[in-house]
Amino acid sequence: MNKVILKSPHGTSEIKIERGLMGKVNDMIHKAYPNARLVVITDTNLAKIYSNYFKTNSDELVLTVPSGEESKNLNSITTLAGKMVEAGIHRSDVVVGIGGGMITDLAGFLASIYMRGISYVAVPTSLLGMVDAAIGGKTGVNLIAKNILGTFNLADYVLIDPNLLKTMPEREIKSGMGEVIKYAYALEPKILDDLDPLNVDAIIEKSVNTKIRIVASDLKESNKRKLFNYGHTFGHAIEAKSGYALSHGAAISIGMNISNHIAQKLDKQSTQLSQQIKDTLEKHGLPTELPANQSIKDLIDLIAQDKKSSGKKIDFVIVTKIGKSEIIKLSAEELIDIAKDFK
Ligand code: GLY
């Protein structure tokens, strides 16, 4: 087993990576919380596959929401919390989120506010969850835009079983690869040596270590953690405008290309690097152009409402060299002006 500890001034999270770990998760959680009841939160599709690993005693509660980003909202939170109250779940119990980023964001948020906070364990089942969403304590639900309501709540444990990816649809693997490519170009070029879904163990390990390195000193994203938002400023808006028909990874792939276009126009990125990133994304089946029904102007209107706007300026991440990125501040007007000719 590969065990990594994320230690931050705001708490600690233990991340375990092991093939076959899913079969041990129930025992591990019961051992870690001997007197707690487990509240498993997952989606209706995943419940068919994974709820057998739970319900080993009548004290375990399995709660589901419909699969898909549409479930990541306050209604789901109040419904789930209501069921937990009815079942007599207390602050000494533990929430276990089993699923992709939608579920771990939702379950982590619920755990952070239920009775002012109860223990939380994340079991990511998608590549995107394993390399990014479940690591580092970001939780939340969507309201108008993505992740408008949320908390920083480190999971006590993040339990990763790469075997679960064997049954992942290709679209989900591609989506996760979008985040992995982001890590590689914005922060950790060593990941480029393993950019193949066949090397998934190395990809997960290197991505988790990259995430931890940054988040340990900046959990609350006041500084370096913002670099993980490479491609996300436009990516979140593209994803929302598509009604979540585009996967997160596909949306941030287009977002990374818009960021590269802006960086080039500001003379901060070479044409060669921009082409290399585009080629890498396309090689992994990710889109690099805006959907026909979206425009830069509409996206920027949405971005202006997003949480990454600070005052009138938007924190915008650009990649300057392979593995090196920086934050620049641009107003919505400047963004429109520089990005308007992106296709
Ligand atoms: N997904 C970006 C972050 O966790 O900061």
Structural overview:
By secondary structure, the chain is an alpha/beta fold. 42% of the residues lie in helices and 20% in strands. It has a 7-stranded mixed β-sheet with strand order 1-2-9-6-5-3-4, with helices on both faces. Helix 5 runs parallel beside helix 6 (170-186). The longest helix is centred in the last third of the chain and has 18 residues, at 248-265. It is globular, with a radius of gyration of 20 Å. Residues 132, 136, 138, 225, 228 line the site of glycine.
3D shape = globular
Low-confidence stretches: none
Helix percent band: 40-55%
Count of helical regions: 12
The count of strands amounts to: 12
Biggest sheet, strands in spatial order? 1-2-9-6-5-3-4
Major sheet size, sense and barrel closure: 7 strands, mixed
Radius of gyration: 20 Å
Provide the residue-averaged pLDDT. Answer: 94
Q: Which H/E pattern describes the elements?
A: EEHEHEHEHEHEEEHHHHHHEEEH
| Share of β-strand residues | 15-25%
Task: Indicate the structural class.
Answer: alpha/beta
> Span from first to last CA?
45 Å
Query: Bound small molecules, which ones?
Result: glycine
Which terms would index this structure?
343 residues, alpha/beta, 7-stranded mixed beta sheet
In summary, what is this structure?
The chain is α/β, with parallel strands linked by helices. The chain contains 12 helices and 12 strands. The strands form 3 sheets. It has a 7-stranded mixed sheet, with helices on both faces. A 3-stranded antiparallel sheet has the order 10-11-12. It has a two-stranded antiparallel sheet with strand order 7-8.
